[in-house]
Structures are given as C-alpha cells and as structure tokens.
Amino acid sequence: MDWSVILIATAKIVVIYGALLSSIPILTWAERRGAAFIQDRPGPNRVGPFGLFQPMADFVKFLWKEDPIPLNVNKLLYVMGPFLTLIPASLTIAAIPVAESAVIFGREIPLQIADLNVGILYILSIGSLGIYGILFGGWASNNKFSLLGAMRSSSQMISYEIPLALSAAGAVLVFGSFSLREMVQMQDGTVLGFLPAWGICLQPLGFLIFLVASFAETNRIPFDLPEAEAELVAGYHTEYGSMKFATFFMAEYMNMVTISALMVVLFLGGWHLPWVSDAFLLDKLGSVNGLALVQALVFLAKVGFLVCFYIWIRWTLPRFRYDQLMRLAWSNLLPLSLFNLVATAFVMYLGSLS
After folding, report:
1. Residue 249 and residue 242: Cα distance in Å, rounded?
2. Which residues contact 153 (CB under 8 A, 6 or more apart)?
3. End-to-end distance of the chain based on CA atoms, in angstroms?
4. pLDDT band per the 50, 70, 90 thresholds, residue 1
5. DSSP states of 199-243 as a string?
6. CA distance 205 to 336
7. Residue 323 lies in a domain
8. Residue 345 CB contacts under 8 Å (≥ 6 apart), including other chains
9. C-alpha angle with apex 51: 49 to 52, nearest 5 degrees?
10. What's the pLDDT band for 42 if we cut at 50, 70, 90?
11. Cis upstream peptide for 222 (omega within 30°)
C-alpha cells in the first residue's frame, strides 16, 4: 500500500473541506453586513471588530440551545432530515478543480479531491439528493407549514433542475468532455482573437439560464418559496431549532458555494485569467507551485464574486409568487434551454463539416 497517496488525498480533503466549512461563518457575516449596507444600517458590529466574531457567538448559541423534539413527529426521519440535506451538499465539492496541479516531494498533485471523467454528472446527481432531507424533515415534522414548504421545494427543484442540466449540457457539447478539469483547461486562450475562450463567451444564453436556475436550486431569493416567512412561517424547517436548524443553514450555504464554483468552472474560465495564458504565468513566476497558488486565488476570487452577487440579489429583488416561479421554469427557461442545446448542436455540426 502506497501511504503517500493516502496522505496526499487526506491532505486535499482536509484543506478543501476546511475551506468550505470556514466559508460558512464568513458568508453569514458577509450576508448580514451586506444587508445592512444595502438597507443603510449598521448590521452586526458589537461582537469583535466590525462584528467579525458574531458567527462564532451564533455557533455557540446553536450548540448549547435546547433542542426539543415536538410531539407526534416521526423521530427517525425528523432527526435524519437535516443530515440527509447536509451530506450531499458536502460531497459535491469533491469534483471541483481548484487549480491545475502542484509539485510536492517530486510528485505532481492535481488540486482536486476527485478527478472524475464524469464530474458534471456526479455533481448534478449527488446534488439532487439533498431534496430527500428536506422532504423527510418537512413530512416528519407533522406541521402543515413544514409539509407545504417541503412540497414546494421538491417541485421547485424538479422544475429548475431540467433547465440547469440542459444549460450545462450545452457546455459539455462545446468542450466535448464531461470532465470538469478538461473543461477548464480548454478555456485557456482566446476565441475570435480577442474574446477569452470562456464558457460565457461560447454559451452566453446557457450561462444566463444556469445563473437563474442556480438561484432556484439553492432556494435563494427571489426563489425562496419553500421557506417564505409571510406564508409558511419558516417552511420546511419551522419545527427545527438548535443545531438541526443550523445544519439546514449550513447545507444552504454549502450549496451556494458549490453551485458558484461549478458556474466558474463551466462558464467563467475556472482558474484562468482573461487574456493571460498559463504558459505566460508559468514563465513569469518560474514555479509550478507559484502558478498553482495564483490559479487557486483567481478561482476563489471568482467564486467570491458570485457569492457576493447572490447576497446582493437577495436584498434587491422581491420574492416571486409561486405561480410565477413555476411559469418561469416551464414556460421560459425550459424552451430557452432546449433552443440553446439544439442551436449549439447545430453550430457544432456545421463546424465539423468545415
């Protein structure tokens, strides 16, 4: 048994999952400060400088808060629900490539937990399993608001997964691969001599469809109908408190980070800078590890930009009505995604003939 392979894989898991988990308190702080900035109020500013320690105080509160289980619930499914939502949200990040590779002890290490040949299929399939935790939790809570929120979430996920997958299929056609690493590698350079060879330039309509559908998939405003406070109290997690509620909360933010990272990989060039090739950077930096560090920072900056965009949209747009949400998916995004897929296939076919 080659223990070095196991140690390297363990180190990648620790670093990447550590970064994912540490992003949750940062995002909760950024969301609250961003909301305060947009609404012209202070926001969290008491616990630590600029309120930076407020997420830690919230964690301690959740950890030690009483966690009663309501009467007449299905206790097994009630307890399992939050964790069945968190586990798929945790697993999907494994297929995301953060940078090309680094050299450690003479060994080339891809900066990705699992380099799967079908990475895009892995993320879409595993990510869709999170709905079971929401359904179990909503049904097992024995609360009509929780059940309605769970049913809304399931119908919303089914409706928006189709245009999301079809828009990703357009990127698969363009790059000719299901491997996320290969997709990023193909986005180095330019097209037409001046545009970055990014998915957003090759698939602009696909990017817009993916962006809108990703808001619905993560239950973010304006698509947060499963937990609409004015209608459903708190939706599927109405009967949850303490760390069980915090688990649902963590899963939502993990999904937001993962879907943003997937968007960066498919449409925003991954770790590439616009109009700057990897070969040029390697020549200037003179080190593979230095190049890997720059690539990782570029990738994280793009993901951070998209996450900030999520926060901005939350405090800018009003919530849709449920009929508007479903109409947008079936009457607008689905036909557009089918058109984009057929048009991409047609263009690719014409390109193969020339």
Report:
1. 11
2. 131, 134, 135, 138, 219, 226, 235, 236
3. 51
4. low
5. HHHH-HHHHHHHHHHHHHHTT-TTS-GGG-HHHHTTGGGTT--HH
6. 8
7. yes
8. 173
9. 80
10. confident
11. yes
In a domain, residue 40? The reply is no
Q: Which two tokens stand for residue 240?
A: 């949850």
Q: How far apart are CA 172 and CA 183, in angstroms?
A: 8
Regarding beta strands 107-111 and 190-191, do their DSSP bridges make them parallel or antiparallel, or are they unpaired?
unpaired
R_g of the chain, CA atoms, integer Å: 21
Q: How many CA atoms lie within 13 A of 61 on its CB side?
A: 9
Q: How far apart are CA 183 and CA 185, in angstroms?
A: 5
Q: Which of 126, 123, 280, 117 is nearest to 183 (CA)?
A: 117
Full residue range of the structural domain in which residue 241 is found:
69-353
Longest CA pairwise span in the chain (Å): 69
What's the pLDDT score for residue 2?
A: 66
Residue with tokens 């996320």: 180
Number of compact structural domains in the chain = 1
The pLDDT-based confidence of 354 (bands split at 50, 70, 90) is low
Q: Rounded distance, CA 32 to CA 36, Å? A: 6
Taking the whole predicted model, whether its pTM rises above 0.90 is answered as yes
Does residue 48 sit within a domain? Answer: no
Q: Is residue 148 part of a domain?
A: yes
